[in-house]
Write a structure and sequence with these properties.
The complex is a heterodimer of chains A (81) and B (291). With 81 residues, chain A is mainly beta. In chain A, 0% of the residues lie in helices and 69% in strands. In chain B, helix 1 runs antiparallel to helix 5 and helix 4 packs across helix 5. The chains are: A mainly beta (81), B alpha/beta (291).
Chain lengths: 81, 291
């Protein structure tokens, strides 16, 4: 059961779509988000955002500054650059 | 009979004006393109941020951030942010803002002594300087500050004044960009943030914020940034709208100049023809007299 992922920075929308798994570098360590995750907020630190659609894995470089929010089956990631 | 020379002078001066308005239209057009693309790039970010704040407001049960509360004291001042322009010649762009403000004040029965103004742009400051208004903040865009810095400064001032109970509500008045031909002045409440009564059917179990030891700092930063992002996006919208509005105003001016020129040319030709006819009559009369 996939969930909706939206990745946005100040220059525009980077990714929007359904994914099965997402890995985010946060202030508290790398967080893996699966469907049915508890509502969740964290800040983002330098690192790579990874997401999986089926078995296919994609990567995005995230500069520092930003945050991630999970509510229901929506995952929103905002970062600065 | 109108003087030929004076008509000619008028025509040439209108032609000059027409050239200027045409040039200004071109300049506004190219600036519009740049501002428009800046606005569109940022739109996704601003809208997603809006959505997230709405999500948080929908199911906050844990938090007691001051942004969510109306001041409990007897201080019922109202803060109003006005985003205007530095330059004129953009039609009714700025006037619409002021009109909307006065309409709102009247509709809500708020005396002007109760409002506190936060002004961006020279035109609004010029306008409100005359009246007896409490201007708490004013900056021009042409002073060299980037919109990011301006929105940052303004957001910090507002958050501080709001948290310190200097006002109970904050509104923002600015022009939204609907299309090149259409901009609309709108008023929007930015503080306190709206809270919904928790909906039982929704997942209103609050949020897990990590790292847990910083959860208040993280939420504080997110909400403060939100105010800044909101103002920043409004500024970008206003920039795009300003150029669009100027383009239209200058387009109209050019067209009006053309109309005036053609009207004056007709009267010039008529006057010239009258003069020629008169001269011919003179000559014929002279010839007749000699015979």
């Amino acid at each position: 059961m996939p969930f909706k992922l939206k990745i946005v920075n100040k220059k525009g929308l980077i990714f929007e779509g359904e994914v099965d798994f997402c890995e985010i570098p946060t202030g508290a360590g790398i967080e893996g988000i699966m469907p049915k995750h508890v509502n969740f907020i964290a800040d983002i630190v330098m690192g790579k955002i990874k997401y999986k659609i089926g078995e296919k894995e994609n990567e995005i470089d995230a500069a520092s500054g930003g945050f991630v929010e999970v509510s229901g089956d929506n995952l929103n990631i905002l970062f600065n650059s | 009979m109108p003087n030929l020379k004076s008509i000619k002078r008028k025509i040439s001066s209108i032609k000059n004006t027409k050239q200027i308005t045409k040039a200004m239209k071109m300049v506004a057009g190219s600036k519009l393109k740049r501002n428009q693309s800046l606005m569109n790039e940022f739109r996704a970010y601003a809208l997603t941020y809006d959505e997230i704040i709405k999500n948080i407001s929908d199911n906050t049960v844990l938090y007691s951030h001051p942004f969510y509360f109306k001041s409990s004291g007897d201080n019922d001042n109202i803060g109003i942010i006005i985003i205007s322009t530095d330059r004129g010649l953009c039609g009714s762009f700025n006037m619409n803002l002021f009109k909307l403000l006065f309409e709102e004040l009247k509709a809500k029965g708020i005396q002007s002594s109760r409002i506190k103004l936060y002004i961006l742009g020279k035109k609004a400051l010029d306008f409100f300087k005359k009246g007896n208004y409490d201007v708490a903040f004013s900056k021009f865009f042409s002073e060299g500050e980037t919109p990011t810095n301006l929105s940052d400064l303004l957001a910090r001032d507002i958050s501080k004044d709001f948290v310190e109970n200097k006002m109970s509500e904050v509104y923002i008045i600015s022009n939204t960009y609907i299309s090149t031909l259409h901009q609309k002045a709108v008023i929007e409440k930015i503080l306190p943030l709206d809270t919904k009564s928790p909906d039982k059917n929704k997942n209103n179990g609050g949020y897990l914020i990590e790292p847990v030891s910083y959860e208040e700092e993280i939420l504080d930063k997110i909400l403060k940034d939100y105010i800044q992002i909101k103002i920043f996006f409004k500024i970008l919208e206003s920039f795009a709208g300003e150029q669009a509005s100027r383009m239209n105003a200058m387009d109209n001016a050019t067209r009006n100049a053309e109309k005036l020129i053609s009207k004056l040319t007709v009267s010039y030709n008529k006057a010239r023809q009258a003069a020629v006819t008169l001269e011919i009559l003179d000559i014929i009369n002279g010839v007749n007299a000699i015979r």
